[in-house]
Design a protein that fits this description.
2 copies of one chain form a homodimer. With 288 residues, chain A is α/β, with parallel strands linked by helices. The first copy, chain A, has helices at 2-20, 25-35, 70-83, 98-109, 163-175, 186-191, 207-213, 239-252, 254-263; strands at 36-40, 51-52, 65-69, 86-91, 114-120, 126-128, 132-135, 138-139, 148-151, 178-181, 199-201, 218-220, 225-227, 231-234, 275-276. Chains A, B: Pfam families: DJ-1_PfpI.
Chain lengths: 288, 288
């Protein structure tokens, strides 16, 4: 990658040299400040693409910062971002409702750009729906850091007091883009304090219990999903499919999500069939 | 059960004696022939409830047939039928599409009266959708005889030439009430010769291939499911949910199926969104 960066950089610099030859000195200085910035000399880490406005040392790897083309580096960053797959951790446990976890599994695994895996308390097999015996890919202790966490429901009660799990959920939420609960999985988000001050939904028979468990949240009925930005909750069982498609639309665009829905022959998907809670200051949320 | 049969029989006979006392002798003879028949003396086997029009020996257990009330025996048969759970075998294999098998799994396992289990070629773990590792409950050789067989799709190609599997499908079809395929699982039904002379559907991208594989069937596009009676095929992936709900409605009534759909919050279910192929002589099939 380093060789590529330097080769393309040489071409861009040559291009810039030719382009700027017709400008005044003042114009040239302004253009240069817009198109050049300081970057860490390539060391193969994420800091390679971090932009700085002044020369100095990289605070991550200690290497001397060098002047580079912003256009080029932004282009490399964009390409890296789109080529990197997002990690999707599907948390499974004894008594997990089969469609709760398999709906989002189908959606993310059928869409380009997601690396989907199961994670459980340990790597011991779990039983879903009373008969589906699944060996988890990872335990909480060796699970790759997820960008998206899916918390399905079912018999979640015994896991609400599981400290390693709740701590894992809290730690994951600190860096994940999306925390998506399905059905009674919302109870786990509540237990991790992630629904405080937010709106949410859950399985129709669990709404009162969830409201009681998380009094600082507003739990909604008859809502397919509620999107608070990072924290997204869905209604019961089959609603996880819609919630996951919403996440795909949010991260990769409506066209990609529609393509996945078509592949799944889930023509019944209604893209706006949920509540998107907009940041303060913005107006009406979509809701059907 | 034997004691119960005889106690209730005594009551019914007493009732019949009182009821018939006001009839002529001819009327009585006619009524008796309608309400009495010959049955195997109770031996605890299915032949206990088999009806015979003449005295003799039971061809199954060899016991002497005795005269009994048809009303009573039909009532016992009805109660036994509704109290017995139907065995639902979900066939899983490497590359099985996760929603293909988990949709019907959710439907049948969430409904009273079904004993659902997974079956595979062997009991070795299989991988679904590239990451879900499942240990099958049964292999083809020790699987309980199913009343309903679910054949999901996905990467079914390698299994079309698997003789033990195709033979198991053929043998299961000889006694099962329902053979339900989802998505490309229809290819397995075709390979077992079960689509000959029937209408069917499958995953949108597999329609031409399936038509070629089973020229004596008529493969339909844009059809959520096709019900030929015992043989039911559904369209792709998520259509398996609808197909399974249709089976529940067919076997246990629309109210039970609606209750399951509500539990799953699958409000999007449209009960008649498929083609029901009626027996010759009957008219219009439902189709949306």
């Amino acid at each position: 990658m380093n060789t590529l960066i330097y080769s393309v950089r040489s071409l861009v610099l040559a291009f810039l040299f030719i382009s700027f030859s017709g400008l005044t000195n003042a114009q040239k200085r302004a253009k240069v400040s817009e198109v050049m910035a300081y970057y860490c000399a390539p060391c193969g880490s994420a800091c390679d693409l971090e932009r700085h406005n002044a020369p100095g040392l990289c605070k991550h790897c200690g290497m001397t910062l060098v002047k580079r083309s912003v256009v080029l580096m932004d282009s490399i960053r964009g390409k890296q971002k789109t080529s990197q797959k997002r990690n999707v951790a599907i948390f499974i446990h004894n008594g997990v409702e089969v469609l709760d976890f398999s709906g989002p599994s189908e959606v993310f695994a059928s869409t380009e750009g997601f690396n989907v895996y199961t994670v459980s308390l340990t790597k011991e097999p779990i039983i879903s729906q009373g008969f589906i015996k699944i060996v988890p890919n990872y335990s909480l202790t060796d699970c790759p850091k997820p960008d998206i966490v899916v918390l399905p429901g079912g018999q979640t009660g015994p896991f609400l007091e599981n400290k390693p799990l709740i701590n894992w959920i809290k730690a994951s939420a600190e860096r994940a883009e999306i925390m998506l609960s399905v059905c009674t999985g919302a109870g786990l988000l509540a237990r991790a304090g992630l629904l405080d001050g937010k709106q949410a939904t859950t399985f129709h028979n669990y709404i009162d219990a969830l409201q009681k468990a998380t009094p600082n949240a507003k739990i909604l009925r008859n809502t397919r999903f509620v999107d608070n930005g990072q924290i997204i909750t869905t209604a019961g069982v089959s609603a996880g499919i819609d919630g996951a498609l919403h996440v795909v639309a949010k991260l990769k665009g409506i066209d990609v999500a529609t393509q996945t829905a078509r592949y799944m022959e889930y023509d019944k998907w209604k893209p706006n069939e949920g509540l998107v809670v907009e940041p303060a200051g913005k107006s009406s949320a979509t809701r059907n």
